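Model: Ready when you are.
Researcher: Fold this.
Model:
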Amino acid sequence: MRPEEAALISRCVAWEPRAWEAFAARHAGFIQAEARRQLLRHLGRAEAADVEDARQEVYSLLLRDGARALRQFRGEAALSTWLACVVRSVCRQIARHERCAGFEPREIVYSPPTEDELPREGLADALARLPARDQRLLRLFFAEGRKYRVIARELGVSINSVGPLLARAVAAVRARLPR
């Protein structure tokens, strides 16, 4: 590390007046160019607002917790190499956040069965011949009007399996009904 860089980092860590402005002025162009390159790599785009957000986040990270990140720089590599690693990390976090923010869970593909699908004649006998779990499932849904979330918790299954289980239980009742 060059002596002037070491001195500037020491001044920033000591919170000397105007030290941070000098650091930012010296490295702003590099940080901005690296942020643009990393955002293109991780997001496939590098709009000016995204680059500015990344640059500000890098500065925030460097100053957070009493300039902890700057204090951790040991000078074993060039400052530009170390800053590139910081920028890369920040841009990866931004990309990960954007991917997660755009994620919407898929809708449940099974629509719940209705009571109208089951005729009344022979229903009690057909229900009695079902396995206990299916009987409980149908009782919870039709008789007690429980939501999928509650049924899943009571039966110890995932919420996404309640719809298919209901559909199978209704089909099993239909198969046991007299024709």
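Researcher: Now this one.
Model:
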Amino acid sequence: MSPMSHGTADSPPSQRAARPSASPPWRYAGDPPSVLVIEDGEEARDLYRECLEFHGFRTDAAADGASGLEKAFATLPDLIVLDFSMPRMDGGEVLRRLRADAHTHGIPVVMVTAVLELVDKRVRSDCAAFLEKPCEPDRLVQTILQVLETCRRRPLGQ
């Protein structure tokens, strides 16, 4: 790998060089926004996290709905990326529980799924955005930025 190379997703983590820090694409004061990625697919979860961190977001991740809920309740992220199709507790149930809790009901959720026909209208309406898999990481970042900007301009509950 050349000294100017930053590695790729195919490179083992030990061979990836540190990327230059990007200036934050948002205009928030203080800490950068935090994003919790709840995704059972390890490859997609790692790819989304790496891309979000490259763009300056703080991230956390969970491999299933139950641990995702625990992290959401404990950390209260600024936004959640939620896979719909997961074993044991699907994204619809995770979303229902987030909306039922006073502390997490207003956290915007960007849902991603490969099986659009399984997601009912109520679940879709409770999401700030809805993306179909495969979802390019740059499209996810752009969607998150749009959702955060919209939420910043409109107080929760309006």
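Researcher: Key takeaway?
Model: The domain at 30-153 is CATH 3.40.50.2300 (Rossmann fold).
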